[in-house]
Amino acid sequence: MMKKIGYTCISLFVLFVLLSCKASLTENLPDLGPEIDLSQLNTLIKISVPKECNSFKLNKEVCLQIINLSEKNWEFNVKKGIQIFQLVNNEWRKVSDKAIDQGAIDMILGPKGDFPNDKRVIPIFPDIKSDQAVFLRIFVIVYNQDPENLHQNTAGAFVDVTLKP
Question: Half-sphere exposure (CA, 13 Å, Cβ side) for 64?
Answer without folding.
Answer: 28
